[in-house]
Specification:
With 171 residues, the protein is of the alpha+beta class. The chain is 33% helix and 26% strand. The protein has one domain: Gcn5-related N-acetyltransferase (GNAT) (Aminopeptidase, 3-Layer(aba) Sandwich), CATH 3.40.630. A seven-stranded mixed beta sheet has the order 5-6-4-3-2-1-7, sandwiched between helices.
């Protein structure tokens, strides 16, 4: 359960700017919502250099997976770690021919990450943007997001930054 509290704290840090901007920040509620929705069986902890730096959940549903609780330490954002983690999860979903759904806060910079990985808007309201990504066909998988056929990336990558994310299931 120590992971739950560490991730609840990380969630509060990561979401605070967007929640404040939207007039929705409550320091207890932001943490409690994570505790209430945390399911270890569907959650991976993201580690870099042995340190917990984030988490992500991929919850199976009737017609898709839901990508949830995707939080990464703000000091490590923009270095390709989130993109590497997301690519690995989406490859898994593609192999299962499964769609992936998520919601992201209005105005969140995370939306650009999801759009780069093929997510499109399904619906939105004043607070949330609901997005979906349908599985890619086998031919589309040969050219991963952010990479040219030769393998060079146009954006930051964990390999170039010396940061290698490791995923482990929550205990």
């Amino acid at each position: 359960m120590a992971d739950v509290e560490a991730v609840a704290e990380l969630r509060a840090v990561v979401l605070r700017p967007d929640l404040v901007r939207l007039g929705r920040y409550d320091k207890q509620r932001v943490r409690q919502r994570l505790r209430d929705g945390f399911t270890p069986a569907h959650t991976w902890m993201i580690e870099v250099g042995g340190a917990l730096v984030g988490c992500v959940a991929l919850r199976p549903a009737k017609d898709a997976y839901w990508l949830e609780h995707f939080y990464l330490d703000p000091d490590l954002q923009g270095r390709g770690i989130g993109s590497a983690v997301l690519s690995r999860l989406l490859e898994r979903c593609d192999r299962e021919d499964a769609a992936v759904r998520l919601n992201v806060l209005q105005g969140s910079s995370a939306r650009r990450l999801y759009e780069r990985h093929g997510f499109t808007i399904e619906t939105e309201d004043d607070v949330d943007v609901f997005m979906v990504r349908h599985p890619s066909s086998p031919g589309d998988r040969d050219h991963s997001v952010g990479s040219s056929p030769g393998g060079s990336s146009s954006s930051s990558s964990p390999a170039r930054s010396g940061l290698h994310p490791r995923l482990r299931f929550a205990p």
